Amino acid sequence: MSTAKKDYKRITTKSLIEMKANGEKISMLTAYDYTMAKIVDTAGVDVILVGDSASNVMAGHETTLPITLDQMIYHASSVVRAIQRSLVVVDLPFGSYQSDSKEALRSAIRIMKESGAHAVKLEGGREIKDSIKKILHAGIPVMGHLGLTPQSIYKFGTYTVRAKEEEEAEKLIDDAKLLERIGCFAVVLEKIPAALAKRVAESISIPVIGIGAGGGVDGQVLVVHDMLGMTHEFSPRFLRRYMNLFEDMNIAISQYVSDVKSTDFPNEQEQY
After folding, report:
1. Do the Cβ atoms of 121 and 145 come closer than 8 Å?
2. Which of 9, 132, 201, 258 lies 20 to 30 angstroms, CA to CA, from 94?
3. Cβ 239 vs Cβ 254: under 8 Å
4. Residue 7 annotated as lining a ligand binding site
5. CA quadruple 29, 30, 34, 35: dihedral positive or negative?
6. SS3 label, residue 220
7. Tell me: domain 13-241, CATH 3.20.20.60, correct?
8. CB 140 within 8 A of CB 119
């Protein structure tokens, strides 16, 4: 049963588990730099994800694969310096944890020590359980990620909805239970059927954060550039644009160019 909303001065992994238990939905957005993180944190978002989606929206790559551990640490450090309330979770980038659990631990330690972040996120289930266990044993909180896992895009070959077939759906449920069992504090489910996501959320006690996974989960995450309308080519069904900043910023910058060209800017009041 839902209870009154608790006023958290600082969100922790424990806070998120309490929020699920109390029926309070969890809000999560990405951020990759100080200025955006300051805005997101001040607005009251519970979790800031320093996602490897920075590879797409910040660096212009087609996939998340090219971003490096050093680059993720740079982005995470910028975000951590801005926040006062939000929990900061950082993606371990492709190649930093999949093949070697010792390498996974070294990568996670670097992120925590060099950026000051609060947790890391890894894509995958039973195939990376050794990496997750080693990181958890070092005292580093881990958020899981199942369903569509963008770091495996060349394996999938498409960004379409995952786990529509019973076999894959059952594996996803088993993986979610495994992640809870070994100690993950939350799990992201990306682009899977809403009914399946609801089933997962009801079968585990840790929070389930959805992106394209319907409303039956414990919280939602979006890429901040997408929800603010700074990107305009990307329009999946699950994306709600709360602004159209691409158009608004284009108009503002065009006006600035015009004012400079016409010598309207700076005027008498805008100079010393």
Report:
1. yes
2. 201
3. no
4. no
5. negative
6. strand
7. yes
8. yes
Q: Report d(CA 134, CA 103) in Å as an integer.
A: 10
Is 53 marked within a binding site?
yes
Query: Which residue reads 């990405």 in tokens?
Result: 30
Residue 123 counted as an annotated binding residue: yes
Among residues 103, 98, 159, which one has the least CA distance to residue 125? 98
Nearest to 189 by CA among 225, 144, 152, 234: 144
Question: Pick the catalytic residue: 103, 190, 233, 247?
Answer: 190
> Looking up tokens 């709360």, which residue turns up?
242
> Per-domain residue ranges for the chain?
13-241, 245-272
- Predicted local confidence at residue 229, as pLDDT: 97
Helix (H) or strand (E) holding 28: strand 26-30
What pTM does this model have? 0.94
Exposed e or buried b for every residue in 206-244, given b needs 16+ CB within 10 A?
bbbbbbbbbebbbbbbbbbbbbbbbbeeeeeebeebeee
Residues 6+ apart with CB under 8 A from 139: none
6 residue type, one letter: K
**Is there a contact between 217 and 209 (Cβ–Cβ < 8 Å)?**
yes
Q: Does the annotation count 268 as an active-site position? A: no
Per-residue pLDDT of the chain (272 residues; tens, 9 = 90+): 444 578 899 999 999 999 999 999 999 999 999 999 999 999 999 999 999 999 999 999 999 999 999 999 999 999 999 999 999 999 999 999 998 999 999 999 999 999 999 999 999 999 999 999 999 999 999 999 999 888 876 666 666 788 878 899 999 999 999 999 999 999 999 999 999 999 999 999 999 999 999 999 999 999 999 999 999 888 899 999 999 999 999 999 999 999 999 999 999 999 99
- Report whether 143 contacts 187 (CB < 8 A): yes
DSSP assigned state of 3: -
